[in-house]
């Protein structure tokens, strides 16, 4: 499985949610609303989910195995860090 596109919408409000991401898989399938979250041990992703009638959240789409989850998370977090670095470079150039 190859992720062919990553689109990141940064969240500027204070809080644990840092970005919302869409990924395209092999130019054929898109998954929207993957969240980048700041946790106690650093950044991680949360797959798209919906709230059930009993108040629990259940993933709408998710990887079947941990290796695929790790691959998706690595790609998303690398792109997120690149985006932050580019924003910092632009801010430095403006000053």
Please, could you describe this protein's structure?
Helix content is about 30%, strand content about 40%. It is of the alpha+beta class. The chain has a four-stranded antiparallel beta sheet with strand order 1-2-3-4, covered by helices on one side. Strand 1 and strand 2 form a beta hairpin.
**How many H/I helices?**
1
Order of helices and strands: EEEEEEH
**How are the strands of the largest sheet arranged?**
1-2-3-4
Distance between the termini: 42 Å
How much helicity do the residues have?
A: 25-40%
Largest sheet: 4 strands, antiparallel
Oligomeric description of these chains: single chain
The total strand number stands at 6
**Class of secondary structure makeup:** alpha+beta
pLDDT average, as an integer?
93
Instruction: Name the shape in a single word.
Output: globular
- The radius of gyration computed from the alpha-carbon positions, rounded to a whole number of angstroms, is 15 Å
Estimate what percentage of residues fall within beta strands.
Answer: 35-45%
Uncertain spans, ≥5 residues at pLDDT below 50? none
Keywords: Cell cycle, Cell division, Septation
Pfam family, one: SpoVG
InterPro entries: SpoVG (IPR007170), SpoVG_sf (IPR036751)
Function: Could be involved in septation.
